[in-house]
């Protein structure tokens, strides 16, 4: 199994877009979405972020064309971006049910896409809690889980298993915000886990920090039980430059079990570029450069 991150927060955009080429030669793109935080540190996206956004959009277009199968686990733009639907022509679409606990704006986007896809000879499958065989490659989907404590949106996870590897893609679970995720994962058996870690950038109170630390404890507990050899930790957790100080328990489990911890950017062989987390630094650097012009 070959895993190619297309976009991710460690790559400078809000995304989990991933391309998977299985040993059975089934080519899958998961969550072809990308977005930028409209405001961070009271600042709009920096030009460098916009450039990276456009780069990821072009990559998504490329990999949709290559893919046989498209999986959409959530209809937030970070996971499903409105690009030209013509690229989905005759693809097999494995879609989260748009009728289950999602905001109206996302439901409308989903219905518009599904209506178009039906007219373009796409094969559509509702993925929630389903097990779907693709020429010997198995895609096992979870039931919907809430993505945040507000319980306004849900996502589904997917475990892709070929003859060699098993990848579990968590979608936007935000570090086990829904306790049911913990119980579900205990019954899976991936050797590669792509996990959306908790968002530590939003912590403002002691209670919020305590709640986030509990999520990390759940992650550590799950890692102790699963046969994971590689943990790809990305998405929400990479929205803070201080993310590393929260994963000491996870690192301890990783050392004991010989689990490799990486990020999407590192999986691509690239350095992490936490552009959103450094947006204020980017703008400050621009100011200094402008001042130097007049020295």
Question: What is the β-strand count?
Answer: 15
User: What is the CATH first-level class name?
Assistant: Alpha Beta
Name the quaternary structure: single chain
How would a crystallographer describe the biggest sheet?
7 strands, mixed
Overall residue-averaged pLDDT value = 93
Point out poorly predicted stretches: none
- The number of domains is 1
Structure classification: alpha/beta
Which homologous superfamily in CATH is the superfamily?
Ribonuclease Z/Hydroxyacylglutathione hydrolase-like
**For the largest beta sheet, what order do the strands appear in spatially?**
7-8-11-12-13-14-15
> What helical percentage do the residues reach?
25-40%
Radius of gyration: 19 Å
Distance between the termini: 55 Å
CATH architecture: 4-Layer Sandwich
Question: Which structural traits does this protein have?
Answer:
six-stranded mixed beta sheet; 7 helices; globular; alpha/beta; seven-stranded mixed beta sheet; Metallo-beta-lactamase, Chain A; single chain; 295 residues
What features would you describe in this structure?
The chain is α/β, with parallel strands linked by helices and 295 residues long. It contains seven helices and 15 strands. Strands 7-8-11-12-13-14-15 form a seven-stranded mixed beta sheet. Strands 1-2-3-4-5-6 form a six-stranded mixed beta sheet. A hairpin with a 4-residue loop joins strand 11 (158-161) and strand 12. The termini are far apart. The model has no long low-confidence stretch (mean pLDDT 93).
């Amino acid at each position: 199994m070959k895993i190619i991150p297309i976009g991710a927060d460690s790559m400078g955009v809000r995304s989990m877009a991933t391309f998977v080429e299985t040993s059975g030669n089934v080519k899958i793109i998961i969550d072809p979405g990308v977005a930028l935080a409209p405001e961070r540190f009271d600042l709009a996206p920096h030009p460098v972020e916009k450039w990276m956004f456009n780069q990821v959009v072009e990559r998504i277009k490329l990999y949709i064309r290559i893919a046989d199968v498209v999986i959409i686990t959530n209809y937030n733009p970070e996971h499903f971006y409105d690009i030209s639907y013509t690229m989905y022509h005759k693809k097999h679409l494995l879609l989260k049910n748009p009728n289950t606990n999602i905001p109206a704006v996302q439901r409308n986007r989903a219905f518009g896409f599904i209506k178009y896809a039906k007219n373009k000879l796409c094969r559509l499958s509702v993925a929630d809690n389903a097990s779907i065989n693709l020429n010997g490659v198995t895609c096992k989907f979870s039931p919907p889980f809430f993505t945040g404590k507000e319980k306004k949106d849900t996502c589904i996870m997917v475990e892709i298993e070929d003859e060699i590897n098993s990848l579990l893609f968590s979608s936007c679970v935000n570090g086990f915000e829904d306790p049911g995720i913990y119980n579900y994962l205990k019954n899976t058996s991936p050797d590669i886990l792509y996990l959306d870690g908790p968002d530590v950038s939003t912590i403002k109170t002691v209670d919020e920090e305590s709640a986030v630390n509990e999520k990390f404890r759940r992650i550590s507990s799950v890692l102790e039980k699963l046969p994971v050899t590689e943990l790809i930790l990305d998405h929400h957790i990479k929205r803070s430059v201080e993310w590393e100080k929260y994963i000491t328990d996870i690192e301890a489990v990783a050392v004991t079990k010989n689990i490799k911890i990486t990020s999407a950017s590192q999986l691509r062989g690239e350095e992490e570029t936490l552009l959103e987390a450094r947006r204020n630094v980017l703008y400050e650097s621009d100011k200094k450069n402008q001042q130097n012009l007049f020295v």
